[in-house]
Amino acid sequence: MSFDLIGTIIDRSNNYIDGQWRPAAHRFDVVDPATGAALSSVPDSGKADAQAALDAAAAALPAWRALPAKVRAQHLKRWHALVIAHLDELAQLISREQGKVTAEARAEVIYGAAYIEWFAEEAVRSYGDIIPGPAVGKKMMVVKEAVGVVAAITPWNFPIAMIARKLAPALAAGCTVVAKPAEDTPLSALALARLAHEAGIPAGVLNVVTASRAQAAQVVDVWLDDARVRKISFTGSTDVGKHLARQSAATLKRLSLELGGNAPFMVFEDADLDAAVDGLMAAKFRNGGQTCVSPNRIYVHAAVYERFSELLVRRVSALKVGPASDPAAQVGPMINARAVDKITRHIADACARGAKVLTGGKPLHVEGSGGTTFFAPTVLAEADHTMLLAHEETFGPVAALFRFENEEQAMRLANETPFGLAAYFYTRDLARIWRISERFESGMVGINEGAISSEAAPFGGIKDSGYGREGSRYGLDDYMQTKYLCMGGLA
């Protein structure tokens, strides 16, 4: 089906509730970070809007949950086909509201669509078990059922992929959903909802409510307080995740929390340095460093520190910064002024404590863009653990290099954080690979690899990085509950 997706979403951006596009009493602007200009406006929703969405999801739940898994899978497959058919439009929408360069925006749409396809296929594989009976005439079995209504709350840095990664398994499992996208990037979520509507997903099964940062609590609190919401799936900051966990306790909701990170990236003396630089470039500078699995602390063995620094600076200094409208751009703008302020503060603190700027280190003015949130890709040398960037997630294009002398020291420093989302290391020593992999306190480990995300792999962390897993066969279980059936009198 062909239609002007971007025009439809930008010109008529309303909440998607019970299969209808509903306005709200107030609206707020969505800003293009590359230009600083308003791109569109969306509803600034409140309690009544959140309640309407929840009522619709609760009403739609019995029929959707009762559908055969194969039928739900067919809905998801039609949705996936429409996402792929509108790949270029969705990528353009991501670039305009989030700032991501075109190649990365296209890659995100394909990545998000992969979750829809994956869980369409997993929907028909939610197997149970037969347990050997303890006595003649008794049978025991286990079945899996949808948790119920799910509230999905998503971040701005991957506005298609993050919501698809939550919606797809929820719908595949037989759950219905109320979703609130981030205030910076609501248009991509509304576009996905439009395509779900066109795919024939029934009214009330998927509902999307937008809200500004000031109004977000009004929306989410409705869902937190209502016992009909049986699960919260959230990607965002650790502080907000802990708040959601506390507020969910009264109704004992299940939670999936993908929270902050502080990923270490370790380069040992025997590493292939060219491969390590390639891996770091992929992991660190994707989306301008605005990813939760971006390496924040780069530990390099003293024996190869200078050579690795030279190779990295050569690559980083050559990166082209610009808006997605520039086909040569490799790094786009930061999402907003607050992001630039944090990056600037981290660099200033590091330099005051002895770090050296090898390249970059300051905001950039990009001719003709009009935006004020571009930042030069940066490499800092001589970082240490007295600096803010060793303890706080910078969330920007800053590669801070820490020097280490031996494996024991590196592992102590790497695990010296309350976070545990992702970790990376490069070595050609097979014994060390197993030893380090087991010692890392993180949910995911990249071994001689910088690109670790996949719809087939379980994504998630430990410690203050949260719990629960998204993607893979494990991801469906997070939206299902286990029921035990015992049948007697069969002899």
Automatic annotation (TrEMBL):
Active site per database record: 258
Entries under InterPro entries matching the protein: Ald_DH/histidinol_DH, Ald_DH_C, Ald_DH_CS_GLU, Ald_DH_N, Aldehyde_DH_dom, Aldehyde_DH_Superfamily
Species of origin: Massilia terrae
Residue span, Aldehyde dehydrogenase domain: 22-484
Listed SUPFAM superfamilies: ALDH-like (SSF53720)
Protein name (database record): NAD-dependent succinate-semialdehyde dehydrogenase
Family according to the record: Belongs to the aldehyde dehydrogenase family.
Record keywords, A-Z: Oxidoreductase
